[in-house]
């Protein structure tokens, strides 16, 4: 087995299966990635693994060309840049097999002290202001701000960190060579230029989808010590981040808003049920846990 064999095998699995693929992950943990791919190709892998392979004829040419051109990187659990403490032994086979990144920073270093800030896409001016101010204060304290790169709270969080000249991480639901929403092309480039990262478990050229937007919520929760929900409506996608954070044993915080605000209904329910702890400033957020 060579390093190249291992890399090609991981690139194939990232394309062949739609994450999370728990049976595949468990099989890789026992047999390694190269043997797993061989067993997939000769159909000797268990049925549970084969059922998770949705693209058995996946080709990795675009991925290899991106790596050769230096436009993106792949980090694996064997690399020093891999945030082992963050992504090891996630429940339900939740850890990715590898991650694509754009930017020169170390993912392990950036996530050593990191907080996820996310919330409503259709955020109010209040929500965007609070997200930006909290992110600015966290960045000033040397904490990396992580978010999903979307409209509303996400964009405000990234811009707040950038305003403090702090690095920020965008966790994508598509390939790192794609931009979604397209209006955020300049924002994503600013993230890279300012020492941050674009991160994804999806291969080069992969497009966003509703399922992928939901799936990446577990990485938003896993990569940081704490998640802060600034605004969330009654059926907000941010709830998926909260569920993952609670499952992974991460801290979850909610920022209260006006009691008659539709964009704060979800946050207030999280606070009422005890699924999140109230935070009205960064002093209320505990991001110290020593994981790397």
TrEMBL record:
Residues 74-285 form the Smf/DprA SLOG domain. InterPro entries: DprA, DrpA_SLOG. It comes from the Bacteria. Pfam families: DNA_processg_A. Belongs to the DprA/Smf family. This is DNA processing protein. The lineage of its organism: Bacteria, Bacillati, Actinomycetota, Actinomycetes, Pseudonocardiales.
């Amino acid at each position: 087995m060579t390093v190249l064999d291992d890399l090609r095998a991981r690139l194939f699995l990232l394309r062949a299966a739609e994450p999370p693929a728990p049976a595949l992950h468990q099989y890789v943990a026992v047999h390694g990635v190269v043997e797993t791919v061989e067993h997939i190709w000769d159909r000797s892998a268990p049925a549970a693994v084969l059922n998770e392979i949705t693209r058995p004829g996946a080709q990795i040419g675009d991925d290899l060309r991106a790596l050769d051109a230096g436009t993106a990187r792949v980090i694996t659990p064997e690399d020093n840049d891999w945030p082992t403490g963050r992504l090891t032994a996630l429940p339900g086979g939740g850890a990715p097999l590898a991650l694509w990144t754009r930017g020169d920073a170390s993912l392990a270093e950036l996530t050593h002290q990191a907080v996820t800030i996310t919330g409503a896409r259709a955020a109010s001016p209040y929500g965007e202001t609070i997200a930006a101010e909290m992110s600015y204060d966290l960045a000033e304290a040397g904490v990396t701000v992580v978010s999903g790169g979307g409209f509303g709270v996400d964009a405000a969080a990234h811009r707040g960190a950038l305003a403090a000249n702090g690095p920020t991480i965008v966790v994508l639901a598509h390939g790192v060579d794609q931009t979604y929403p397209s209006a955020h092309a300049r924002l994503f480039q600013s993230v890279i230029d300012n020492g941050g990262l674009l991160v994804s478990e999806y291969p080069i050229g992969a497009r966003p989808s509703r399922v992928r937007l939901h799936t990446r919520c577990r990485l938003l929760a896993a990569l940081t010590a704490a998640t802060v929900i600034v605004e969330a409506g009654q059926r907000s996608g941010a709830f998926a981040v909260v569920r993952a954070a609670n499952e992974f044993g991460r801290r979850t915080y909610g920022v209260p808003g006006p009691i008659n605000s539709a964009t704060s209904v979800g946050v207030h329910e999280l606070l009422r049920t005890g699924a999140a702890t109230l935070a009205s400033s960064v002093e209320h957020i505990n991001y110290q846990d020593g994981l790397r």
